Amino acid sequence: MKKLLLLSALFISSFTFSQKEIKLDIADALVIRSLEFSYEQYINTESSFGVSALFNLAKQDVDFRYNENVMITPYYRHYFTTDYAWNFFGEGFLGINSGKDLNVDTSLTTTYTNYTDAALGIAAGLKYVANGGLTIDAYAGIGRNLFGSNSPTLVPRIGVNVGWRL
To answer: Is the pTM of this model over 0.85?
Structure first.
């Protein structure tokens, strides 16, 4: 009974901190024609977990685009500073991605192979939080696809998010 009471208290206390953020990656939207939405829930002042959803809107034959057409990325962030306005963070993520990978054979024929894979990776970034609730964060990182043979080896995680703290 004591263990159940302790687990219940830990579960409830993780949601009583109640800082949440909803964000849009404006760099992806402006540069490579994709939409990435994020939701982040703070556990305490030093850590948070969240999820991002990326939808690539660029055509397959564009010069510069992500290979991923869709990517769902759950992540955990640890904040190294406790300053309210500026925070430096490290991130661990699992990117579940699907898309089309470019294949060029010996006769110089280009084809695309569909794939679905999961990438494990790390990122680092900086976050600014205004007194009114506006948030801006910039991050960069890389992950490695783990399972597929048709998928690209590396998966980028780069962005500039603008959002609102609820």
So the answer is: no
SS3 82: coil
**Residue 48 near residue 62 (C-beta atoms within 8 A):** no
Amino acid at 9: A
First to last CA, the chain: 35
Question: What CA–CA distance (Å, rounded) separates 95 from 78?
Answer: 18
**Alpha carbon separation from 143 to 30, 94, 138, 155 (Å, rounded):** 23, 8, 17, 5
Whether the CB-CB separation of 112 and 59 falls below 8 Å is answered with no
The CA distances from residue 38 to 50, 104, 141, in Å, are: 7, 35, 16
What distance in Å separates the CA atoms of residue 126 and residue 159, rounded to the nearest whole number?
11
For residues 140 and 123, what is the distance between their CA atoms, to the nearest angstrom?
5
pLDDT digits (tens), the chain, 166 positions:
566 665 555 555 555 557 999 999 999 888 888 999 999 999 998 999 999 999 999 887 777 777 789 999 999 999 998 787 899 999 999 999 999 877 777 777 777 888 999 999 999 999 999 999 999 999 999 999 999 888 889 999 999 999 999 9
Pairing of strands 47-56, 110-129: unpaired
